[in-house]
Amino acid sequence: MERPLDKALADELGLTYGAALRELVSGPFLREAARHAAVSLPFFPWSGAEVRAGFLMKWSAYLEALALQTAVRMTPGLGGDERLRRKTFFGTCAFVDASTQKRTKALSPEGKEEIEKLRRRLLRAVEVDRLDEEALARRFFELLHGRQASDAEMEKLKKLTHRTTELLEKLTKTTLEADPKKAKKA
């Protein structure tokens, strides 16, 4: 039985996505993501801190948009309720931002502004343009590099996007099927 859409479910989806995305933007997965997105990161963590932090935040923004897209697609009624959709999105963003805050100190004010602009464009791509998974990956690549992706580059990014979407779908399904009354008793 699926849970009814309410504030508690929107909160829970946001926290669930945020916790998962926190893991996807940290450690070795970030290097794999950069490789799939055709971004060259410095080998040593202490060199090129701004480049690394910039990609970290751009990748985070993309994953947040992908999470919102998955939530809207899989949660009945969420696409039509802006208040609950925003609650889910901001819950995800707050969790991810808190976990990446320390590493983003290397960004300049212009870099932070650029990332917020990218985040707004990706959010618009999901909410207004209603882009599918592949089109969202293409839009992210264009925003990241300022050019269209080659077929080979797009294939790599689509593969990683698909794997990430599968994870988000499993999390959504588990959250929708969870009984909140049983969770409170535990």
Spell out the blueprint of helices and strands.
Layout: H1 7-24, H2 28-36, H3 49-74, H4 82-100, H5 109-127, H6 133-145, H7 151-177, H8 180-185
Helix pairs in contact: 1-3, 1-4, 1-7, 3-4, 3-5, 3-6, 3-7, 5-6, 6-7
Describe this structure in words.
By secondary structure, this protein is mainly alpha-helical. The protein has one domain (7-178). The protein has helices spanning 7-24, 28-36, 49-74, 82-100, 109-127, 133-145, 151-177, 180-185. α1 (7-24) crosses α7 and α6 crosses α7. The protein is globular, with a radius of gyration of 17 Å. The two termini are 20 Å apart.
Strand content: under 5%
Number of strands: 0
Q: Structural class of the helix and strand makeup?
A: mainly alpha
Compute the average pLDDT.
87
User: What summary fits the major beta sheet?
Assistant: none
User: How far do the termini sit from each other?
Assistant: 20 Å
Q: Which H/E pattern describes the elements?
A: HHHHHHHH
Mass-distribution shape? globular
Q: Please estimate the helix content.
A: over 70%
Low-pLDDT runs:
none
Radius of gyration: 17 Å
- How many domains in all? 1
Number of H/I helices = 8
